[in-house]
Amino acid sequence: MMAFSSLRSVSVDLNHDASLLIDIPDALCERDKVKFTVHTKTTLSSFQKPDFSVPRQHEDFIWLHDTLVETEDYAGLIIPPAPPKPDFDSPREKMHKLGEGEATMTKEEYTKMKQELEAEYLAVFKKTVQVHEIFLQRLSSHPVLSKDRNFQIFLEYDQDLSVRRKNAKEMFGGFFKNMVKSADEVLISGVKEVDDFFEQEKTFLLDYYSKIKDSTAKAEKMTRAHKNIADDYIHISATLNSLAADDMTANKNLNIILSLQKVEGRVASDQDLKLTELLRYYMRDIQAAKDLLYRRARALADYENSNKALDKARLKSKDIPQAEEHQRQCLQKFDKLSESGKKELTSFKGRRVVAFRKNFIEMAELEIKHAKNSVTLLQGCIELLKSN
Amino acid sequence: MSLCTELVLDITYHQVKAPLFLVAQDLTLFCICVNVQSQPASLAAEDISTNSNGPKQDSLFDDDPEDLFAEATEEVSLDSPERDVLLSDGPSPAITPITPPTSVITPRIVSCVFIEEEEGGDSFDIHISVSDPEKVGEYMTSMSLFKRSEFAVKRRFSDFLGLHSKLASKYLHIGYIVPPAPEKSIVGMTKVKVGKEDQSSNEFVEKRRSALERYLMRTVKHPILLKDPDVLQFLESSELPRAVSTQALSSAGLLRMVNKAADAVNKMTIKMNESDAWFEEKQQHFENLDVQLRKLHTSVESLVCHRKELSVNTAQFAKSAAMLGNSEDHTALSRALSQLAEVEEKIDQLHQDQANADFYLFSELLGDYVRLLTAVKGVFDHRMKTWQKWQDSQMLLQKKREAEAKLQFTNKPDKLQQAKDEIKELEGKVQQGERDFEQISKTIRKEVSRFEKERVKDFKTIIIKYLESLVQTQQQLIKYWEAFLPEAKAIS
Q: Ranges for the PX domain (chain B) (predicted)?
């Protein structure tokens, strides 16, 4: 599991509380479906056993996320973003293209390309395992969410969850999320803000979200270009191999090009993990924060509406106590949201800064390491060529 | 003690505003700077043609009564207005034919190219400087080839093509591998002529200038070609008659294309009885090499393309990161993001420079050799044609002999005499044909050996340069990231 630790740094302070430890020790990939083994170790009495595992699919994670989002009590919390669906399209497409182009390559070239693709496949697989794991760990380390009943069911229930999932959809109609997404931008910006803190946060988050979304896309393109270069090196080294029989120079170059290819490939994947994944994760996290703001804005709108209703009731001298009660409830809800929202957003900022720092440091260190590696390789080769 | 002279070539490019009505002509002039320097023998170890201490190589100058070089020597010593011995300093070089091969000196060409601005017309300047060897003594020096030590000439692109055309017509059919000239590009040239001052036309000019330099370098590196009067005139004389038949769409150009096609067809119909396995082997070898080099060229072109893409993507990311940094409200993180943006911007420039190195060093080298191999294959084809000509003469002689035998029994003394005369003539032709065939075979052997040595040396030199460029890029990367690291650590 050592290779996985690099992605954990996108969200720090997880899985430290020994009372509830969660991890995904392995997963199975069958065609499109990934089956995760969710393993829990706990000292809490609320669980039936201290150590147990259950198989879960991606859809189960989404179900858990959605039920949390739709729970009124958690309206004032940043719900950790749902893990994205495992996406094997890119390596699968490349594998298909490789199969088609097999006739034009030498056997070695084909083998090397296939190895590269298998590594890519594995990298996607590892990433998806980690992102699902982090989701659960965010929940387990949250003081409120870790106690959620559905969360416990998710961890413990040793039968297939799909029955429950269907019921949940029926209960909530499933349309709530879709409705929310389209309206939130308008609502957030439209509502008159009473609190400076939230005013600032609103401005900041809206702007930051669009910027980080752009950066994520651009970082992805950079990573892909690096991968293309690594692939080119494979083709070049294969051709040099064929030339090697004729030419001594080519033979030596073959090795250096192969090594360069490995380094370039590693640069690409490290950049992907440290930079692109980081940006991608926080883009989703900021969306979650925006959702919180939306819910609070909704609560504010409800409160304002209840005020209007109360005024109307007073005018008509009808149903005043209900209106007063309704207004009181709205205010209470709004205040509760604001209070917990403030806490959540503040800790979110701290978390974000720490994660960025850690990843930037690691990225810079890796870039330096790879570049130094390359220099050694290249200089060695140059020496060899010159001495002949 | 032997000396070798070194010819240093500089090609620069003159950019000039020309009136549009002159678009039809080739206005580009190139400046060639040639510098002939001397070098002590110890540094000549690698030079295949001047190594007096080295192992006996299958070079052009093997002990051979029919030394080709000796012929060239005589050619040079002929008196002509341009061959006046007019060196600025140093002893007047005596062109003494000496026993080859040990002390033959051939100028070695090293080139560097730069571009200049000048009024009056697009031109490439050829600056030629010839410096004295320290000691001449009884050794022949190629210094005598040049009457001045440093001079400059202006040449148009079509002049280069004209030079190649002349050399090809003189030397290809007798087996010499004449380096092909850079290709014409109608699209690219039109842009430059119209005066478009943009990135792509600048790149085009640079590409062309660099190609011309490499072409000229390869030509003058060839010991036979360097001594050719056309080459010397090209390098030296201030005015050159315009090469007329080099325009791509001219009638001469079309005629050339037709002839090439005809040659291709003819080649397919010649069935040669190859008595020498060496030729078959070599031909196969060059076929394979051609395939591999083309493939490699394609891969490297793809590498150049992707690296340019990476550069563009990095620049875009840098801008995006800068915007993100502006948006970030945590001060230290905001600063770190801006720093990251700056680093990525610098890295983008690095990628661009590396892509240029990929191209000019690696890709263009491969392109040159793909074209050179065409010339090599052409030379083998000429050998086949020479053989065919010899065989044809032989067959014709056979027929004439049969006819003469028949005539013996008729009473036509005139016709008989005529037949005998024709036979004598044909016998001469057959002998000449056999000599030509043997000559071209020998020349090709030498040329191929020289070519292969040059190729290995060329590739090695360029690959080393290329790897050094990669080293530089990586070292710069280290610097940039090491500068960024404290910034990242400063986030709190």
A: 102-242
Residues B43 and B107: beta-carbon distance below 8 Å: no
CATH superfamily of A178-198+218-387: Arfaptin homology (AH) domain/BAR domain (1.20.1270.60)
> Please, how many CA atoms are within 13 Å of residue B416, restricted to the half-sphere of its CB?
9
The predicted model scores a pTM of 0.75
Q: How many residues does chain B have?
A: 492
How many C-alpha atoms does A161 have within 13 Å on its Cβ side?
24
pLDDT in tens, B225-248: 888 888 888 887 777 776 555 555
Residues found in chain A: 388
CA-CA distance, A32 to A86, in Å (whole number)?
Answer: 8
Q: Do A378 and B302 touch (CB under 8 A)?
A: no
In angstroms, the separation between the Cα of residue A64 and the nearest Cα of chain B is 31
The rounded distance, in Å, linking the Cα atoms of B179 and B202 is 26
Nearest to B481 among A212, A249, A367 (CB): A367
Q: Which two tokens stand for residue B196?
A: 């478009």
Which residue among B323, B332, B482 sits closest to A368, beta carbon to beta carbon?
B482
Identify the bridge partners of residue A153 per DSSP, sorted by sequence position. Answer: none
Q: Indicate yes or no: CB of B474 within 8 angstroms of CB of A385.
A: no
Quick check: helix, strand or coil at residue A24?
strand
Mutate to test the interface with B, among A356, A376, A385, A386 (most CBs of B within 10 A): A356
ipTM: 0.85
Ramachandran angles phi, psi of A16, nearest 5°: -100, -20
Q: Which CATH superfamily is domain A1-176 in?
A: Phox-like domain (3.30.1520.10)
Q: Is B259-491 a domain of CATH 3.10.170.10?
A: no
Q: Where are the domains of chain A?
A: 1-176, 178-198+218-387
Give the angle subtended at the CA of B372 by the CAs of B366 and B375, to the nearest 5°. 155
CA distance B434 to B156: 41
Is the Cβ pair B310, A208 closer than 8 Å? no
Q: For B443-485, what is each residue's pLDDT tens digit? A: 999 999 999 988 888 888 888 888 899 899 999 999 999 999 9
| Positive or negative: CA dihedral A297, A298, A303, A306 | positive
Cβ-nearest to A222 among B317, B464, B467: B317
Residue B483 in contact with partner chain A when CB distance is under 8 A: no
